[in-house]
Amino acid sequence: MHQISFTEGSEINMFKRVSKKRFIICAAKILLIVVVFGFTLVMLDKILLLKSKDGIEQIQAYYNQPAGSVDALFVGSSHIFCHVNTGVLWDDYGISSFDLAAAEQPFWNSYYYIREALKTQNPKVIILDITTPGIRPTDYQPENWLITNTYGIKYNADRYNAIKVSALDISFRRLLIPFNSTHGKYDELSEDDFMNYSSSVNFKGFDARETTVPFEVHDVSGITERCDLTEKEEKYLRLTIEYVKQNNIPLLLISSPYVVETVEEQEKYNTIFDIADEYNVPYVDFNLLYDEIGLDFSTDIAEVLHLNRSGNEKFTRYLGQYLKDNYDLADHRGDSKYASWDADALYQRQDTGAYHLNQAASNKADGKYLDLLNNSNYVIYCTIPSGYAGIPDPSLQQYLNAIGLTEDKLTDNKAFIINSGQCVFESDASDFKAAIEDGNRRLLFCRSSEPDSEQRQTLVRTNGSMGYQCITDYETYEMSQEGISFYVYDIVLDRIIGGYTIR
Fold first, then answer.
1. What average pLDDT does the chain have?
2. What H or E segment, with its residue span, contains residue 22?
3. How far apart are CA 259 and CA 273, in angstroms?
4. Please, which residues have CB within 8 angstroms of residue 241's CB and are 6 or more apart in sequence?
5. Closest CA to 151 of 278, 55, 32, 254
6. C-alpha dist (Å) from residue 494 to 194, 351, 464, 500
7. What b/e readout covers 322-353, taking b as 16+ CB neighbours within 10 angstroms?
């Protein structure tokens, strides 16, 4: 039998090997814990982050744009994302644009947005909105606007510096950690927090206002005096101009049209234009061009600060022509590399259609409403009441024909599902279920009669992947028994637009 002996040195070496192995295992465990903890924080940050089209979703979607694809970059306040319709710029001019803006954005946040933007894009022109110093003359925004202007930026030096320059010293450290602002949101979480649809590549930052408020036109053409900017405003305006010039990108300053209420507002814009002249930077004051744009202050204004959908389309067309005339902007329509702009333009067209459809319904414009139903992206649910005695206005029949409802179909107690001018389902039963499917998209209609109600009930359910969102939704509506009733589902917008009854 052989005895195995160990020297003192070998014992030490063995101890070292065991210790090293334990150290590696321990370090690996710690690293795993750090990675899991970090991943959890990142996911919680995404879930708890405010889902806001006031700036956060704009910059998050911008990060998803194909590198080098944005030709016209718009930066600034809500006057950008409410006024510059990216779909119209694409449909009319083939301009691949993006509204990289945030609510009441001051120049210091515009500066950091542009710094972030140029990491992935080399636009042919940057258009900077200058209105915030006029409408919100302050060096420190309320915290809600500070958050929407900074929290969408990736974790990097620009985000840190944007928060630092935006926050008061006493709140900087607290605001630097987003959980200090979002930790109370746990009991408010919804499906939207887990599925941020607007961060899709198809979203180009535009967010229209739908209301209409009439205003008197304020003539600012005679205001020629100047009003000083704050030291901070002027510093970051100059930094922005100089940074864009260093990158050899053309810069255009604009004051987009709105209801200028005070002399001081226009005086500040005049000062900004003087600074632009120092750098030989062009500018356009669209508040001097209401007539040229074709703006009607009785129909095109949403509220004092913003244009509505009618107004932004007029303004965008005028602005688009100006950009085509003065900058080297290619027409990318038909290029598959820019398919996401096709998707954005389609979405904007459908959103405009929904706006006009609801306007026609509120104005009780039967013919206009039925004409707008002739849309291949609508699924229309229609019911005919019991004891139906015919169309109250025979001239409406041509509109009904266009959406697949010929006169022979309009009989007592009928229900229809219509898509692309075709009647895909019809029934005269008081209770039924009917579904239409397109790939993984499904739309289910259920009709039932309730003894205690004079109106027939319908349950609409949608589910499946609809565009870039995943929908599971139930909606209950009452279909009037006093006329032909409609509910419209838009497969592009992925939502019910609304109902209307022709009596």
1. 85
2. helix 8-48
3. 19
4. 251, 275, 276, 279, 281
5. 55
6. 17, 11, 11, 19
7. bbbeebebeebbeeeebebbbbbbbbbbbbbb
Who contacts 11 (Cβ-Cβ below 8 Å, separation ≥6)? Answer: none
Task: Please count the CA atoms within 13 angstroms of the CA of 148 that sit on its side-chain side.
Answer: 21
Nearest to 322 by CA among 494, 161, 35, 97: 97
User: What pTM, to 2 d.p., does this model score?
Assistant: 0.83
| Residues 6+ positions from 377 with CB-CB distance below 8 Å | 346, 350, 490, 491, 492
CB neighbours of residue 177 within 10 Å = 12
Q: What is the pLDDT of residues 100-158, one digit of tens each?
A: 999 999 999 999 999 999 999 999 999 999 999 999 888 998 888 899 999 999 999 99
Q: What pLDDT digit, counting tens, does each position of 3-30 carry?
A: 444 455 555 565 556 566 777 777 777 7
CA neighbor of 475 nearest in space, from 455, 457, 450: 457
- What is the CATH topology of the domain spanning 47-350? Rossmann fold (3.40.50)
* Segment 276-325, tens digit of pLDDT: 999 999 999 999 999 999 999 999 999 999 999 999 999 999 999 999 99
CB-CB contact of 68 with 319 (8 Å)? no
For tokens 């120092």, name the residue.
278
**CA–CA separation, 53 and 209 (whole Å):** 12
Long-range contacts of 119-124 (CB under 8 A, 24+ apart): 120/63, 120/65, 120/67, 120/68, 121/65, 121/67, 121/68, 121/69, 121/70, 121/73, 122/68, 122/249, 123/70, 123/71, 123/72, 123/73, 123/249, 124/71, 124/72, 124/249, 124/250, 124/327, 124/328, 124/329
Tens-place pLDDT, residues 338-396? 999 999 999 999 999 999 999 999 999 999 999 999 999 999 988 888 878 788 788 89
Amino acid letter, 408: D
Structure tokens at 91: 């449909």
Residues 6 or more apart whose Cβ sits within 8 Å of residue 138: none
pLDDT band (50, 70, 90) for residue 447:
confident
Query: Helix, strand, or coil here: 72?
Result: strand
Please identify which residue in the block is written with the tokens 């200090």. 180
How does residue 466 score in pLDDT terms, banded at 50, 70 and 90? very low
Q: For 491, which DSSP code?
A: T
Q: Dump pLDDT digits (tens) for 324-334.
A: 999 999 999 99
Determine the Cα–Cα distance for residues 324 and 85; give it in Å rounded to an integer.
15
How far apart are alpha carbons 237 and 265 in whole angstroms? 16
Query: Is residue 284 within 8 Å of 322, Cβ to Cβ?
Result: yes
Q: Kindly list the domain boundaries of the chain, sorted by start residue.
A: 47-350, 375-502
Residues 6 or more apart from 183 whose CB is under 8 A from it?
Answer: 48
